Each structure stands twice: as structure tokens, then as C-alpha cells.
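Note to self: keep these together.
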Amino acid sequence: MYIFTSMMSFILFLLVTLVLPTFSAQGISKCCLKYPSTKVHRFLLKSYYLQDSSLCDVPAVVFTTLRGKRICADPSKLSTKTGMAYLDGKNWKRSQTTSKQQQKDWSS
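Structure:
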């Protein structure tokens, strides 16, 4: 009985040791904690996402640049909204072009 208890304790310890760093890396390290004063021209932006408010304390929009750098931004700022609108419009145009090309291919 003692061996079984020891083995279960070791397995539980091992699971906690393996899972805890993974949880921390996914949750806190990916959260924006403040808004840097970095200004990036919208033509250099590739995409954005809204930071998950259930995991992170600070509401933020996270932009990704063409070079893969992540930049946190205040969602209430006009420059942030303009950047989001620019990317939304850029993606909308891309999807419309793709849809037209697909329609053309299907009709052929």
C-alpha cells in the first residue's frame, strides 16, 4: 500500500510540474500588461486580435507586424481603431478578390 501511495504522489507531482509552466506560458506571458508608446505605420501591420479579457487584466488589441513583432495597443485610442479598420478593409478586399476568382474558376 505504501508503494502505491508513493507512486501516486510522484505521478501527481510530475503532472503538476509539467502542466504548471505550460499554463503560465499560455496565460500570463502572452498578456499585454501596459500600452507601449511604440507607433507603427498601418502599412506595416499584418493582423490583430483582441486580448482575452478572461485571462488578462488589461484590455488590449494586439497587432502583429509584417516581421512578426507583437505590439499591444489601447482599444479606446483612435489610432488603434484606425489600424483595426485598415486591416479589416484590407482583409475584406482580399476575400472579395478570392471569391471573384473562385466564381470565375467554377464557371469555366
